[in-house]
Protein: Glutamyl-tRNA reductase
Organism: Isoptericola sediminis
Amino acid sequence: MVLLSLTASHRELDLDALERLSSGSHSVGREVVGSCRPVQGAVVISTCNRFELYLDVDAPLDGDAVRHATHHVADLVAASSGVTTDTAAGSFTVRTGSEVAQHLFGVAAGLDSMVVGEREIAGQVKRALVSARDDETTSKTLELLFQTASRTSKRVGHHTTLGGVGRSLVALGLDLAGETLPPYPGTRAVIIGTGAYAGASVAALRARGCHDVRVYSRSGRAADFAASHDVEAVATDLEALVEALEDADVVVSCSGARGRARDLPGVDAPEASLAYVLDAAAVARARERAAARAEEAPEPPALVILDLALHRDVDPRVADVEGVLLYDLSTLKANAPATDHAELDRARDLVADAAVRFEETRLGRAADAAVVELFDEAERQVEHEVAVESARLVEELAPFGQSPTEADLEGIARTVRRRVHTELHGRIVAVRATALADARAAEAAVVAGAEQTLRASRATHPSRA
C-alpha cells in the first residue's frame, strides 16, 4: 500500500481558485474509490480554506497505479468543480509516503491554517474520517492515519501555547469586528449556518459577553441548533432573515450552503453558482428599515458581516451597501496574527516525531514476518540448549544415584530462555531496521516511478498535465 495525498489550500492558491476547485469536492472520495481499482480508500477534507484528498493506493512497484490514480482524481475534480483538468492537476500539491503523515498531522494541529494553532480544523479532520466511514471509502491505513492525526493535534495543543483559547478564524473575525461594534454585552448577533463554525461562533460571542444571538439556516436545522445552543432560531424564509438583520450589529455567516446548493432538489449547477445565502438586495432592505427605525440618529449603527464560508455565503456586492462592513476570508487572511516562532518550532517537532512513529508502525508491518521468524528460531534454540543442559545435569548426577528434580529442570529452562532472549533483542532491532529500510526503499521506488511516469506523460500530453 502507498499513501497518496492531493492537497490545495490558501497557502498555494488564492481563495477564488480554491473555491472553484473544491465546489464539487463532496463526491470525489466515493467516485475515485468506485471507479479506480488501485485506490483502496479515500478521505476528503474540504473546509473554508483547503481541499485535500487522501488515498490508500494498492500500487505495484512500477508506479503506474499511483500515476493513474493521480490523473483519475484530477479528472473527477475537474468534472465536479467545473474547472479544466489542467487547472485541477496543476492546483494540487502531490505528496506520497512519509510526506502524507507529516502534512496531515500538521494540518490537524492547525499549523497550516490561516490562524496558526486554530482548533476548529481538528474537528474537521475527525468529521472527514466519519464521512468516509459513512460513505464506506475508508481503509485500515487511513483509519490509522487520521486517528493518529487527531492524537497528534491534542498533543500539540497540550504541550504548546498554540492551542490557546481564542486562536481561530471566528475569534479573529470578531476581534476585527469589535473595533466597530458596541461593547459585546450590548451587541446583537445573527449566525447563518448550523455547522462547526456556527457552534464556535456562539461560544466565541458568549466568551465576549454577547448573549443576544439568533441563528438562521435555510436547511431547516436552525431550530435544533438553537435548542442545543440556547439561542433563538430565525424562520427559514429570506424575509425572516431580513427582519433579523434590521436590528443586528454583527452577522457571522458560515453555512457553506452556496457550495452545497447543487445538491438541493430542483437546483441546477448554474443556479447554485449564483445562489448567495445573503445577497446585496436583502442587506440593503434591512439597512433601509433600520434607518427608518433610527429616528433620533442620523443613521443606524454600522452592520458588520463576517463571511467565513469558502464558497462565499455573502454576495461581495454587500460591501457596497451603505453602513455595512464586510470581512471575508481574504480580509482575515491578511490580518492573521504572527506566531511565536519558538512555539511553532516545538509544535513542528511534535508533528515530526508523530510522523516518524506512524511510518514505523505502518511500514513496520513488513518487519513482522522477519521478527516472528526470529522468535521461532529463538524458541528452537532454547529447546535445544535446555535439552543439552538437562542431559549434562543428568550425566553429572548419575554417579550419585540421583536425577534432576522438576525444579532443577525449570531453573535450567528459565536461565537459558533469559539468556537467549537477551541476545535476541539486538538481533530484533537490527532485523526490524533492515525491514523498515527495505520497505522505505520499496515505497520510494513506487514514488519515483510514479513521478517519472507523470513527468513523461505531461511531456507527451501537455493537456493532461
Q: What stands out?
A: Residues 260-274, 461-465 have pLDDT under 50 and may be disordered. The first strand starts at residue 2 and ends at 9. The radius of gyration is 30 Å.
